[in-house]
Amino acid sequence: MEKAFNKIVSDRYSCRSYSQEPVTREQILAVLECARLAPSACNKQPWKYVVIDESQLLEQVYAAYDRPWIKEAPAAIIVLGNRSEAWHRKHDGYDATDIDVAITTEHICLAATSMGLGTCWVCNFNPETVCSALNIPDEWEPLVIIPIGKPAEGISIPEKKRKTVEELIQWGKF
Fold first, then answer.
1. CA spacing 20 to 30 A to 100: which of 18, 32, 38, 106?
2. pLDDT by residue (tens digit) across 129-141?
């Protein structure tokens, strides 16, 4: 099990080139089943997923992000957060929405990778464009657009450039 998970983690990358092969609703439901099992602070689960798989709506949502590659993805999952539903730390009011949404988003990306699909976190988008296109109620905030699809033919997993574990760990006191 450990090796399989390590392989999924090492194979996950930000895919920016997709084939036009459709992603089935069954595939998306399988990915979202993994996402719904993600942990959240005090199990508040302050997220919702909006799945876009029709071209006209994709065009409207993709207009919120000014990069041509995103238009290749045949589907997208928009992850919404609701700050009023999230856990807040009593000492300083810290809001866990962003972390909770990040955890469920990475579950989406890892699940998709395990199924041979590509994804990419997109956070640099115009949220007003997304809200307008999808009629998102005020209490819900679009935090991530995840294009999803089969990677284009000939795309290989890029080499990961990460710090070494020794650079990241501090044992005991800082």
1. 18
2. 999 999 999 999 9
Supply the CATH number for residue 107's domain. Answer: 3.40.109.10
Identify whether 171 is part of a domain. Answer: no
Does the residue 164 lie in any domain? Answer: no
Q: Is 167 domain-assigned?
A: no
| Exposure of 68 in the CB half-sphere (CA atoms within 13 A) | 0
Q: Which amino acid, one-letter code, is at 104? A: T
How far is the C-alpha of 31 from the C-alpha of 147, rounded, in Å? Answer: 13
Q: DSSP states of 5-74 as a string?
A: HHHHHHH--B---B-SPPPPHHHHHHHHHHHHT---GGG---EEEEEE-SHHHHHHHHTTS--GGGGG-S
Give the pLDDT confidence score for residue 3 in this predicted structure. 67
Domain count, the chain: 1
